[in-house]
Amino acid sequence: MSDFNPLSIFYIASEMFGSWFWPLVVVALVLLYGVVSGFRRLRRRGLSAGGPLFGALVVGLIATVLAAWWVPSSTEASISALGGVIDYVMVIAMALAIGLGVFALVFSVMARKRANSQIKA
Questions:
Q1: How far apart are CA 18 and CA 4, in angstroms?
Q2: Which of 16, 102, 106, 109 has its CA 20 to 30 A from that of 117?
Q3: DSSP one-letter code for 79
Q4: In a domain, 53, yes or no
Q5: Is 1 part of a structural domain of the chain?
Q6: Residue range 67-119, pLDDT digits in tens
Q7: How many CA atoms lie within 13 A of 17 on its CB side?
Q8: What is the DSSP-derived secondary structure letter of residue 19?
């Protein structure tokens, strides 16, 4: 394991996702930009991020729970096909990734709507 470094993770991920790797990287960067710009826009106008943050957390949690059931069926496997701990860890990790993406999208939209609709009094 002395060769395990960020470059190794990059090659493992690019091998695992194949042709979907770079589009997923672009989507992740766009979502990250949306969250950061949403926070900046709210702070610039003196508004709290509490409302958009809470709404995005609720929707992201629901998406994570739904994705936990969807991920095994997307591979045409049943829950009973999950045999080892690593199977469950991967299902949870994939569900969390989907939930995090939904959270970022919802927060970006809600923060922009709130910042655009309310002007600091």
A1: 20
A2: 102
A3: G
A4: yes
A5: no
A6: 998 888 877 766 677 777 887 888 889 999 999 999 999 999 999 999 988 66
A7: 12
A8: G
